[in-house]
Write a structure and sequence with these properties.
Elements (H helix, E strand, L loop, with lengths): L1 H5 L4 H18 L9 E4 L9 E8 L3 E8 L11 E7 L4 E7 L3 E2 L15 H23 L5
Antiparallel strand pairs: 1-2, 2-3, 3-4, 4-5, 5-6
């Protein structure tokens, strides 16, 4: 993972990651065209806490999915709340917002103390890891593979 962050990220690599996230998301939420469709899972083996994926908006070409942590955290730790835009026509899913108020641009023109230059990459890689753990958790909880 460290090597990925060290590399210069380009748009083609981001698109590839978004395509993989689309496939992973569809394994967890096969009916992504239905508002209210949801799944809950615990991404951490043996640890309390869970996540919920819920379709909150459906348009002709896209869907909006919210990934929300359902665990109790200390007040000083922000809950994880991610909005994922799913593009049905190009079969891509990308993180478009996190913590309810922070949009993530493709590249930051000026460095600020609030965002890293590769923040879009970091959140999409986090989504990848979260979805992979969700698939593993769902596979372990059911006898039949997803």
């Amino acid at each position: 993972m460290y090597q990925l962050r060290k590399k210069k990220h380009d748009l083609a690599m981001l698109h590839e990651e978004c395509e993989l996230n689309f496939r992973r998301l569809h394994r967890l939420l096969p009916n992504i065209r239905k508002i209210g469709e949801e799944i809950g899972f615990s991404p951490f083996d043996g640890h309390p806490g869970s996540f919920e994926l819920r379709v909150i908006e459906v348009t002709r070409y896209t869907s909006l999915v919210r990934a929300l942590s359902l665990q109790r955290t200390p007040q000083w730790v922000a809950d994880i709340d991610i909005l994922i835009r799913v593009y049905k026509d190009v079969q891509m899913a990308e993180v478009v917002e996190w913590c309810r108020d922070r949009s993530i641009p493709w590249a930051l023109c000026e460095l600020s103390g609030l965002q890293a230059p590769d923040e879009k990459w970091q959140w999409n890689l986090f989504l990848s890891e979260l979805l992979v753990q969700g698939i593993r958790s769902a596979t372990k909880s059911s006898k039949t593979p997803i």
